[in-house]
Amino acid sequence: MSTITPASASLVSRLIDSTPTRRVSSRQPSQQQVIFNRRQTLFREIAKLRTKLAKLDTKISSLNERATLVNDTNNSARERIRYLTQEIGRRSQEEMSGNFGNDYARSLRHYNDYSRTNPNDEQGIRSRYTEAIRLLDVITAHIGEDIRPLRTEAQSMLRNLTNAQKNYISLNERIHTLTQEKHQLQRDIDTMNNEYLSLTINENVARGKRQRRSTYKKGKKRKH
């Protein structure tokens, strides 16, 4: 049996150390693969943004419908308040022209005439003034009783109208914000679409060049 001498052991060690090690290559993706991956990413992102845009359109449309309804309600309330105001004025004028109004008008004339013709009769002036005020209070109470339901309705509708107007303003502000968001979203989609189209054109051009190279054949030399 042969034995390994120190010299042969050293030689074996040097041979082992000098043996080249095999490296694992880290292959980089090709340009075409990079373009393909980017196109796939853009396709998915565009699809997500379009879904978001559709939801945004639906929300804006719903808010517009609500705002239109609130605005129509506000217009109806304004018309009703205008009618009630005119009706209150009409009934008040009508009462002032009726029996109570005529009684008050006569009493007021008597007071003015007596005050002018008898300026020193304080008692007489005071009594006629008191009677005119009494009749005024009577007609005022009568008018107030007649127009109370109209005034109550008008005040209630005015409060509702004020709240509805605040709601209408809030809806329009929300619509404006979402519309701005929609426009920005559409710009983002347009930008991605342009990039996607550009990458598709580049990929098609590159594929066409590869196909032309693969199908090219050398022709035979012509004999002269």
Describe the protein.
- The protein is rod-shaped.
- It is mainly α.
- The model has no long low-confidence stretch (mean pLDDT 84).
- It is built from 4 helices and no strands.
- The two termini are 77 Å apart.
Specify the structural class. Answer: mainly alpha
Q: What pattern of helices and strands is seen along the backbone? A: HHHH
Q: Determine the strand fraction and express it as a percent band.
A: under 5%
Regions with pLDDT < 50 over 5+ consecutive residues?
Answer: none
Overall pLDDT: 84
* Biggest sheet statistics: none
Number of domains: 1
Distance between the termini: 77 Å
Count of runs of 4 or more consecutive helical residues: 4
What is the annotated CATH architecture? Orthogonal Bundle
Rg over CA atoms: 49 Å
CATH topological fold name:
Helix Hairpins
Helix content class: over 70%
CATH class: Mainly Alpha
- Gross morphology: rod-shaped
What's a quick, concise take on this entry?
With 224 residues, the protein is mostly helical. It has one domain (32-204): Helix Hairpins (Orthogonal Bundle).
Per-chain topology:
Layout: H1 6-18, H2 31-96, H3 99-117, H4 122-215
Helix pairs in contact: 2-4, 3-4
Question: Which key features would you list for this structure?
Answer:
single chain; 224 residues; mainly alpha; 0% strand; rod-shaped
